[in-house]
Each structure stands twice: as C-alpha cells, then as structure tokens.
Amino acid sequence: MRVLVAVPALNEAAAIGQVLSSLAAVHPIGDVVIVDDGSRDNTAAIARAAGAHVVSHAINLGVGAAMGTAFKYAVRNGYDAVIQFDGDGQHRTEHIGELIAALDGADIVIGSRFAVGGTYKSSAARRSVQRLIAGVTSLFARTRLTDATSGFRIAGPRALAVFAEHYPVEWLGDTVESIVLATRQNLTVREIPVDMNERAGGVPSQSVFKATLYTARIMFILGLATIRTVPPQVRSANRRQKAEAAA
After folding, report:
1. What predicted TM-score, i.e. pTM, was given to this entire model?
2. Does the pLDDT of residue 205 top 60, yes or no?
3. Which of 88, 104, 139, 162 lies at a 20 to 30 A Cα distance from 11?
4. What domain count does the chain have?
5. Given a cut of 60, is residue 210 above it in pLDDT?
C-alpha cells in the first residue's frame, strides 16, 4: 500500500522543518506533501528544502480545502491511502504505523486523544463539548467515537476515492461532516488511541461562551450533513471501488 502523508500548513515556518524531520524518520519524505494554504512566510521553501512535495494555494482556503487538494493529489499520483498530519507539531509520528495497520477492517481510522489509553488534557468546557460532538457523530458512524474532531486520521482506498471527488470545506466540516459523508457511502470508521503534543502556537478557546458557539456550529454542520445531497460523482467513485474490490 502506498501511503501519502498530507500536511495542511498555514504560516508554519517555525515548526514545519522539525515536523518534516520527525516524519522522515518513520516515513519516506518523498511520500509527504505539504499543502501550503496561502502562507505568507517561507513555509513552502522550508518544506521543499527538506525534500517534501509542495502544492500551494494562492490564498488561504481552510483545512478542508487543503485536504481536498491533498486527496486529489494522492489519486493523481497513485496513492492508496492518505494520512492527515498537522504542521504545528501536535501530532506524533510514532502513531503513523498504527494508523496504517488499523486500516485492516476499516475505511477511515481516527487517532483519538480521548480513547482508552490517551493522556491528552483538555479544559472542562472543551471536553464537555467534544463529548457531545463525539456522541452525536457516533450515531452516524454506528460505532463509538471519542474524538470526532481529531485531524490525525487515515483514509483508506475506498475513502480516498470518495474524498478525492468531494470533501467538506466548512470549518470543522472537514472532520465531523467527512465522517457523515463516509458513513452515508457505507464506509466504516474506527479509532485508535494516540498521544498528542500541546499546540506549538495559538490559543484554543476555553470559555463556556466560546464552547457554546463551537457546539452550535458543529450541530449546524451535522444537520446540514444529514440533508445535503451526496454528489453523483461521489456515489460513482464508491461504486467503482466496490467493483474493483469484487474483481
């Protein structure tokens, strides 16, 4: 199986060099693509110097659009699976092999901060929101999920075919709505416990007010996902994958 590691990056010049160095220790750097999502610093130049492939957006389009670009890049270049990996140093490379191994029997595997064995710490407000989101998303996935908003995940061949045709681009839609999209195509989702580092930069929202707004947006996204028509090309991609698997 050819596995592409996709790193959506926006102004990550301070961290991207170290991220790529850690990736190179466990995964061929030639199978890493940085989707430079409109950075105004030298993120792209550092990535190229490290040996990674770089695809650049002229303007910032968001993580969902960056991953949509990565899935299309993967299909064009003959990859079978795509791992999403943060460019800020939060994700740990030692779990990459575990994600790949866990694809046996699943189409999407999520690295969960909160599954049994995880040690990630979160504020009470954020954790309560994450539990609610995970509980609702679990109903769609028909399996118990504890970290539906985790961006550390792998999409296997059938999921890759679907996501290369369409991937949600709304903020947070790339995580929770993509799960709903996948399950509507009868793809299977599971999770494994992973450790994550604290953010290298930025301040996550922690107030009850911000947590409430965050929850409302996620619930709105989930509501849209249930009524949104699945694009015909997505259904066609899923049927092609099933036919190829049967052959």
Report:
1. 0.83
2. no
3. 162
4. 1
5. no
